[in-house]
Amino acid sequence: MKPLRTMVALSQAFVRISSPSLGPDLEAEFYISNASNHPGYGIALLQLLGEATAITQDDTYCQALASSFKNHVKTRWNPSDEITLGIQDSEKEQIKSLVVRLMLASPPRIQSFLRQAVAIISSYDFPNNWKGLLPELVMRLSSSTSYASIHVILRAVNSIFQKFGHGSKSPELYSDLKYCLDGFAAPLLEVFTKIGAVIKATTPVDAATLETLLECQKQCCRIFYSLNSQELPEFFEDHIKEWMGEFEYYLSYENPALTSCETGIMDQVKTAVCENINLYMEKNEEEFRDFLPTFATSVGSLLMSTSLQPAQDQLAMAAVKFLTTVSKSVHHGLFSGADTLRQICERIVIPNVRIREEDEELFRDNPWEYIQRDIEGSDMDTRRRVSSELIKGLMLHYREPVKSLMAELLQRLCSVSSGSKDKDTAIYLIVALAQRQSSFTVGATTDLVNVEQFLASQIIPALQENELLLQASALKFVTSFRSAASKAVALGLMPQIIKLLLSDSVVVCSYAAWCVDRLLLVRDGGAPRFSSADLAPFQDQLLANSLSGLQRLGSQDNPYVMKCIMRVLSLVEDQAGMRHLDGLMEIVIRARDNPANPAFNHYVFESVSVLVRKACHHRDLDVVMAFEGRLFPVFQSILQNNVVEFQPYVFQVLAQLVESRAQPIPGVYLQLFPMLLAQLSQQSSGSTPAMIRLLEAFLLKAPREIAQANQLQEVCNLVHALVSRRSTEDYAFYIANAVVESLGQEQLIQAIDRSLWTSFFSRAMGGQRTVKFLKLLTLFMALFTVKHGPGALVDSINRLQPGLSINVLEQLWIPALSYISGRIETKLCAVASARLLCESQVLVGDQILWRKLLDGVETLLERPDEEQGQVEEDVPEMDIMSGYCGGGYAQLHNSGRKEEDPLKEIKDAREYVRASLQMKYPGL
């Protein structure tokens, strides 16, 4: 940048954009943006900033300069693209020589930006390309007489060293760590003890100075954590007594001068100490064991004196985590005494799992965050969660005494005189300490209470009370222990749960829907517990209340309620579901106009899909036409208005409708076919899998119409394009298999032309060959064989090149047999191979190849049969809060591709192969 004139102009531009009275100044912003593309811009900012801070110029102006510098470094020190102009190496060196000194000379608000800039530069250049940084920081740390400056330096060092706390082990990381340990381990201990001496001195310091001193100690603790995160450094092992002595002091430190301190710095120091000793407990147990008894006592005492105010949450959680680590270690004996266990349970765990006013406010004012914490698993760092983990840790070694103690406490919490918060605490503990199962169909178990007795004495009354938070906890209990209660008990609870779907509380409504959904998933002995007959007395009220629940404020796009509707529709009688089709379509229309919640949208279409699957599977023309009349206008508007979030769903449901139609299918469907081909021939999109699914349905239901419209060649061109990319090769064979299954032999020979075989074999025999592709191709050829005969396959391949079929069998088919798995796939390849062995003339003159194919079939059939009759997979779980990305593909479980057996008439592949060979070659 040009020296004086440009610097003045740049300064004036920053004055204009930082002056509130002038308002937005686009000309100045454009000037600054243009200047940032010139060499020297970063140095110019630092020079202007240095001049401004030296004369204490307007703080807003300085902040604008510092913020621009930080952002300039962030985007241009190591640009992520080729378009952004990077900072030149010579200017980088100038910046690195100035930035630390300027950071220390600046006011606190400016220091923050510059410290971030130092951290950014360090992430790229330190230590290899910024050898002077650490020595400069150490020099300034040792020579500074200002505690404020020491604090700034320590914060900068903490930012630089944080990579050691979360970085993965690597030679590069360990090399950098060793450099930092060599240069900073001793200075760190020196400054920590020096400041500690000032804090401990009998001569009191004022509150502001004391706060700064403790801020320094907090940063020292954070740096200690980073430097010790990978493994125990030799320096820290040699000086462990000094460090632990200081840590012990701060755990019990109190000072009246900090009573009015709003930052909570003393709690922050204690939190950092707890995290450090927990780190040593986890990683350096042997070296730490001599200090453990003292710390266990100190942390326990600290917790008993810690308030329940949110300001002390981080301290409480860090302390509880330390006790939990100890409880799971070989030193658990520290907690073996009955009095110790009682104190932990009564004075630490119970108070910290008790619902607080802040939780009630969250329940009322921000229900979705409450739900996310409570049942979506985002509460890992809450007092409730860490305290329940402490009980689990104690139960690892002292299950019976802890269980007995908890039973006593639970009884006290659930007594007649107890309030709703006590009962909520009891329910939370029982649920938190339950033994979880891996399947949603099972639920949890507990030996703390008799589930059915607890349901009768506590949960049913809680569901009937007007305490909303207690209702939610009771619903969570029913959901968690859904398998532990009998079917009769669950059905008895259903009317009250259904009633709560109409609750004005978003949390209660959501939990009621969640409860119904999970109850209907339960299986007894592998079979669904509830049938449509069991649900019949409740089905209409259940669906009506669920649909009404979606009209309540805050629940208009409630994914839990929508999933409940889907679950109910999958179980109720067909007619019951159809009675609510209009209500369901109103939800689709509302979601179409405002597709805000992806998870909700998914379950809306899953509900539509399950109705189509259940109601149309009999192919009753009147029923199918009723669905078409209600769905088509909405689907047409979605496609015409390019609602990309919903297009994949529309194509999948349309595929279901096509498949439910008897041939010939109406022309209104076939009008979609050219559009489908045109879109698929363009670049792949989120709708591609769904469009492929619909294309398959067309090929299987309307092959004659497609052939008559001369569209088969376009289909084959599409296969050719899809098979050329590894990411879409599956789709290519979905289509190719549908062509083989749907066309007659004459049409098939015309469709599977030379170019298509060339595409297949080029992939299979070239450098892009993979096991997956080999299996796909072999399964396709096997299907071709069983549908149209070995002769048709051999002739089709040999049209490409005479005798090519021999090479294909030897190089592709036979090797692929060793990779084939799955009951249907194994049978298909075995039968197709047997037909080649017995019917194909191409193998007659090649006994070696014939024997290789026979050996391959025998090996294929020797593998153990896969287990049959497995439980049908349920609708996959999805993230309720985030769902699927807009425009991406989300497969509908109820409209999924059903794996059809092309050889249903053959029950036993082994017997078929044996019989075929015996008939063709008696005495073999």
TrEMBL record:
UniProt entry tagged with the keyword Amino-acid biosynthesis: no
One cellular component (GO) term of this entry: cytosol
Keyword Cytoplasm assigned: yes
Pfam families named in the record: CAS_CSE1, Cse1, IBN_N
UniProt cross-references to SMART domains, sorted A to Z: IBN_N
Coiled-coil segments: none
InterPro entries recorded: ARM-like, ARM-type_fold, Importin-beta_N, XPO2_C, XPO2_central
BP GO terms, sorted: protein export from nucleus; protein import into nucleus
Record-annotated Importin N-terminal domain positions: 28-105
Keywords noted in UniProt: Cytoplasm, Nucleus, Protein transport, Transport
Cross-referenced PROSITE patterns: IMPORTIN_B_NT (PS50166)
GO molecular function, one term: small GTPase binding
Record's subcellular location: Cytoplasm; Nucleus
Family per similarity comment: Belongs to the XPO2/CSE1 family.
Name under which the protein is recorded: Importin N-terminal domain-containing protein
